[in-house]
Every structure is written in structure tokens, then in C-alpha cells.
# Entry
Amino acid sequence: MIPYLSVLLLSMVPVLELRAALPLGLLYYDMNPVVAFLLSFIGNMLPVPFLVVWGRQVLEWLASFKTIGGPFRWILRLGEKKVAKMHRTLFLGLLLFVAIPLPGTGAWTGALIALTLNLKLKKAIPPIALGVFVAGIIVAIASFAGGGLADLFVSDRLIDIFNK
# Structure
């Protein structure tokens, strides 16, 4: 049970997300690839609806503080400026951005983009989910391609955390 829970929970962590959880399940825990993929995908997508629905309110609340609000106000202004330009290419752009399996380009960042652009959940979930799916395929292929490629996604330190 611990391996399954580890993969599910790790995939919910910002920056690490599916990109770390899937190789952990495949390479370290030697899970069935379908099970590892599903756990990573589900875990990666679980926070997204909450981020899209309530994230903007949190950003606006943080922006209201005089001392710490500057960066949050900047994020909100940036989203408002870009929203008019991006509506035609939004779906594909968000999908591709989330699909790139690098730190900082996953579902969490995709949800941040969606909330700054004031996207409704119905419009935000499909491109983010498809992006996570594509990232999962890329990470799975890289994981199976050999230890050298898998090292790009899972460090020895991460594996040591789950050894304890």
C-alpha cells in the first residue's frame, strides 16, 4: 500500500508532480506501468480543480497586502494583459506548456496560468489533463529508455527519501 500512496502523493507535489512520481513507481517500486501511470495522473490532477476555482481568490487576497502584495498584483496584471491575446491559441498553448516534462511546466503552473487568465474550470481542465497525459507518456518512455534518461527525472536523493 505504501508504494501506491507514495506515487499518488508525490504526484501532487508542485514542481515534482508526475515527472517524479511516475519514474518512482516504474523504476523503484517496479509497479505495473498502467497502475503507476494512473496513480501519477490522478494525483497530479487532484489539486488542479481547487487551484483553478479558488486560486484567484487567494491571489487577490495576497495582492491586497501592501507589504507582500506586489508580486501577486504583478501576476494578476500579467494575466489580464495576456487574456485578450491568448483566447485563440489558449487550448493548444496550455496543453503544450503542461506537456513539457520539465520542472515548472506541469499541472500546477498550468492551473496558475488558467486562474490568472480567469478561465472557468470547464475550459481549464481539458488542456491541463491532456498535457499531464502527454507528459506522462514522455516520462514513461524516458523511464523505460534506461537509467541514464530516468536520472533526469528522479534523483538519488528522492529515492532515498522513500527508502527511510
